[in-house]
Amino acid sequence: MMPSYGIRSAKYEMEMFEAAKTIYIFFKEQMMKSLTLLGGVIIALLSVPALASTIQVKGDISYKDDVFPILHDYCLSCHQPGGKGFEKSGLDMSTYQSLMKGTKFGSVIKPGDSFTSIIIQVIEGRVHESIKMPFGMSGGLARDKIEILKKWVNQGAKNN
Ligand code: HEC
Question: How many angstroms separate the alpha carbon of residue 133 from the centre of ligand 1?
């Protein structure tokens, strides 16, 4: 009786051990998978600011050479007399003087301070999603163009 019980027991233990090993390997694999996934997510999150900071904008920004071409391509169709942005807000961007005059409520540019300048706030969608400029453009203005406008405002919004 005893020996046969002993053999069965040893076999049973072996089977249990194998089963436990399989379960252990399975969970270890799952864990490695989720760690890899987590690692990927962390790397992706870390690279977002890294990417943002790699946007290089040249030192001195010129209204004539850098800023006006952007306003011309992305804003003027609506923001000059006859355009719906002008009709609604009064903001005409066809000249430096009219741009600095702002909307019917007042100036949209505070020289030296891009953060509180309305023109930057609406481009970055910080006022309200419904008045993100350029109006109706999905995705908004490209990051490097926003940086040019911000830098120009921060450098004093000069007519240069
Ligand atoms: C497709 C037309 C259109 C384009 C393109 C457009 N806008 Fe506008 N914009 C509008 C309209 C319409 C309003 C009025 C929004 C409102 O008050 O509801 C407006 C209002 C504004 C205002 C005033 C917001 C306020 O606080 O009253 C600013 C500043 C502005 N736009 C900047 C820009 C800039 C900068 C660009 C280009 C990057 C641009 N817009 C492109 C249509 C446009």
Answer: 5
